[in-house]
Structure formats: C-alpha cells, structure tokens
Amino acid sequence: MPDYTSKIHEAARRLLAEKQVDGVIGFRKGTVPMMRQPVLIRDPADVETLCWDSFCRMNLANYLPKRADRVAVTAKGCDTRNIVVHIVEGQVKRDQIVVLGIPCLGMVDRRKVLSLLKDREPVEVSEAEDKILVKGSGFEIALEKAQVLQDNCTICVHRNPVICDTLLADPVPEQEGIDRYEDVRAVEAMGPEERWEHFRELVAPCIRCYACRNACPLCYCPTCFVDESKPQWLGKSIDPPDTLTFHMLRAFHCAGRCTDCGACEQACPMGIKVRQFTKKLEKDILELYGQEAGMTIEVRPPLDVYRPEDPQGFIQ
Amino acid sequence: MSSYRVYGPVRKGEQVLFARIEDGTDLDLAYQNSLLSPKGLFLPQSEKMFECSLDPARDDRNIFKEIPKDDTPRVIVGIRPCDARALTLVDVNFDTTTYRDPWWTKAREITTLVGLGCDAPCSTCFCTAVGGGPFDETGLDVLLIDGGDAFVAKALTEKGRKLLESAQALETAAPEIMEKARAVAEQATARIITSVHTSVDTSGLAKMENAALYEAGFWEDVQFACINCGTCTFLCPTCWCFDIQDETCAKNAVRMRNWDSCMFPLFTLHASGHNPRGKKVQRVRQRFMHKLKYYVDKYGRGVACVGCGRCVQHCPVNIDIRRVVQLMNETAS
Predict the structure, then answer these.
(1) Can you give the residue ranges of every domain in chain A?
(2) Which residues of A touch B224 (CB under 8 A)?
(3) Average pLDDT of the segment spanning B44-51
(4) Domain count, chain B
(5) ipTM entry
C-alpha cells in the first residue's frame, strides 16, 4: 500500500493552513490492535495523529451530514460513493466537502484475524505489502491480507474514488471477473420456508444495539422508524418478528442507495452478516435499473424518480 | 448438584455466551471473556413481568398479573470475578432499603456463583485499576482456581459451602495443588497490575469537581467518533437501565422491560418533545460521568466499572473508557 499517511498529513496541513477547510475528518490510531478511530482535526498541530492503513474500516461519509462547517475527509472508493449519495440526497453540499481520495486495496476484517488466531490475543498488528503481521505473547505470524479482507472488499469493483478533490495516490487496478452475488443467488434458490429460516437464524443473535444502522451513512433520518413513539411502529424487545422487521425494513430503506461498504457488518458486535439483506436489494436494483448507488452526482437514485421505461412487471 | 439448574460459558461459533448447561460437555472453562456479560441471567434483555387478558368477556380483563418464573436454585459456573463483582455494583440500584426490584433480587437469591479465577487476563482488562482483581472474591460463593490437573474450589459463603457439599467426586486439595493454584493467582494478578494499573487511575475521581468535569473540553473530542449505538451499554455488566413497554397481541397483553441505553436519543425524550440530552456529546458524557463520577459520588464505593474491557474490545469506533479516565485526571490536575 502506498504511504497514504504522509500524503494525508501534507494535504491536511495545507488545507488547514490555507483555511480552505475548518477541519479534517480522518482516522487516528486506536488503543487496541486493528482499531482506528474516526477523528476531526482542527488544529494543524494535531495533523500528525492522522493515519491510514488497512484497518480504517468505518465509512467516514457517516460523519458528514448536518455539519455547518467546511471539512476535508479521507475517503476510499465506497466512502466517496456514499458522499455522492449524500450530495444527491441533499444531505451535504459538494462545495462543503474536500474529498481526499484514497484508492483502496481492501480493508482487513478484524474478526477474521481474531478467528484465525484461535483465542491467542494479538498485541501488535501491522501490515507489509500483502501480509498482515500479528505479534502476541509467544507467537508471531504473517497472514495473507487476501485471507482476512472484509467480505465486501473481496468482491469490490469500485476501489477508486468516484469523486475527489485530491487523489492521494495513483488509481489501483479494479478487480475483474468478480461474481458479486454468489451468496445472494444461493438464498434466492431457497424455497420460501427455507429462506425464512435462513433469515431468522441470521438475525437470531441480534441485540438491537443498532450499531449496523448507526455505522451506516445512509441512516441519517432524524428519527428512525424503530424510534418512532407517536405512534410506535415496532416492538422494542428481542422478539424475533420485531428484530427481523427492523433488519428487513432498514434494508429496503437502503435499496438503490447502499454502496456495500460493509460498515454495518464491521460494527455489529455479534458478527451478524447483515449485508445478506442489503446485497439482495443491490442486486435487484442493478438488474432492474442498471444502476449502482453513488457512482455520479448527475443521476437521481432509481427509487426516487419515475421513468416511463421503468420495469413494471410487478403490475399484473 | 443435580438439584440446581446450571448455567455457564458456552462457545457458540466464534463467541462465548452464558447459557443453560445441559450435560456439562458444552461448558467452556478455557474462555477468556464472554461477548455478553452474564448480567442477562439477572436482568434479561427482554423480561416479561406481567400479563393480562383484553377479552371483554372476561371479568379479569385489563388486570395485569405477575408472570410466574422458575425460582428453583441455579448455579452459574465459570463466571469471571469481574462479572460477579459487577452484580454487587448493580445491587445498589435494584436492592435498596426503600426499593427492592423483585425480579433482580429473586434472581440473585436463587443463584450460587461459582467464579473462575482469571489466569490469563486480556490486554484490555483493567480490573485491578477499579477495585477488583483476577481472583477477586467479591460477590462470589465459590472461587475456582486452575491448579493444573485440577481446579481448586474455595467456598466463600454459606451458599457456596452448600453447593460444594452437594457435589460429588470432590476431594480435599493436596498441598502441592493448593500451592500451584496460589502461584497461578499471584502471577496473573502481577501481570495485570503491571500492564494496566499505571495508566488507569480512578483513585482521584471522587475528589474531582463535578462541574469542571462536566464542562471539560475533551468531551468534544471523545464524542466525535461515537455512532451512538448501544454496543457499550448492552455489553457492559454494570449498565442496568431498562424501558418498560406494553405489547398486545390479539386478546392478550404483556408488560415487559427491555434493556435501554443512554446512547439512544429516545432514552431521554420527553412526551413534550423536549429532549434534555438531545445531542450526542451530552449522551456520551452522561455514560462516562455516570460510571466514573455520579456513581462514585452517590454510593461512595468506587466506579461503576469492573474493568472487563468489553466496551474497549467491541466499540466499533474504539472509544476507550481507559482513555476517558486519563482525560478526566488531566482535567483535574
């Protein structure tokens, strides 16, 4: 991976010094291995704390709506697509954001690394080329990065920023010949009962903490439907129908808007594969409308416009 | 032992969670830390308290009646000392001279806690910095220490003695196993003290001025990354807040309580529409101030944190309570 960190420092220092922005949103090193924390830097003296590596999992587009100031933001391919979604949906103004674009080679799934360690605790994790180096008490191993990438990153076809003010490195080659929907087709092939069971089991561990929703840049509603209290739309317990309703409705609300950034799965403390819901809708939108979310600010999302040629097979 | 319902740590896929043990083979006593704390066995995430009929034909319609619960004796085997200590910190909320929560106190009463000393604490553990320790006996009825070939069980209360007497196949520990167990305990305690104790100092919190901490500038920095999910509060063994809800289905109604979280905007939303903690920074501050200052001041028994490190491990944006303690200390000095 190119040395993005020093490029970010350089850009951030310049933007703050020239007063082009009020702050820079990026990541800083976390307090435990493989964790990086979203941070807002306002003082040029703090620029050095910014960093970039394969552990910058969260989607920083999530921190942009409802801001009154002008900020720069470090953004990988999927993050930039979510910035486009924000612009198209009127959540941020293009001239309010300086995008520091990061061609991305995929993010490391912390859970996958921990799983491979089989209860041995990592004390220090670093990366070199395509290897992830893990050190712990009495052991030191190198993992192939490809082996521990986030699921969504392994099938990503938009690693390069789609919108950008400063590109921090040369574009990376996009992955070719990727089958993005193998898992979705497996679910589609199931009978209704089997599918119902699949989704029931999928969300069974859910504790309704809403980390998936809150990590998602799309979920900026002032009041989420699960939080409506006058009237209340959804039960608050962990009764399976309520939990499943939350996940299904949230997914439908993301139809045609989701960029498959994977923040939801990375945030989930229970390790639920919540992308199973959103990916099906992503596939449907692609097949029905030929559109992928957040690719350009020129095009409205497919579900908020009507065109005579829209597929209408459902009206029968 | 057969007269007890047995609960303990069970591995489910990648995670360890507390669950009912049926035949003993699923009990995982080699685990480090469970994903969810065992508080759910005392304060379930969704607990049905009352039910009633809505059937107009019935005389007892609309009258809530308590739902009977299984209150036969149970034992939790393999609870970590931090999680047991957490129960005693929560007792001050649910079991007071003026108010006794019937479900919490009943669950506490029927439960015998068999603790498992921690001989390999995680790097995120800081129990020794908040008044506990990997072999702390607070709240436990029995403490198990791994003596190599066998566990040494130490009865700590009458409940614990009763349990051990009822268990078969127990022998008096040989002196060399006792010695080994003692060495294990000392080493683990030393390890955790040297790794964390210097960086997490909660001793000065009681003397700090409330207003100065409340107004401190560092909250802006701490709160920025927070996504206001409920991970920290739901995983925390000392977060006790709940929300009471009535639900109806056909001609039946149930009154239940569900875990709630001060991270959620709805938590403090008034019927008027006003929200006294409408901003994220207020909610983040509340969580830490409650744990590290308000609880300290109100009960005079230290912080409402046992140093289990779950929030540190699982916060999706790495908000670290140890760092917050440090920032509080810096503000005061």
Answers:
(1) 1-106+157-178, 110-148, 179-316
(2) 38-40, 63
(3) 98
(4) 1
(5) 0.96
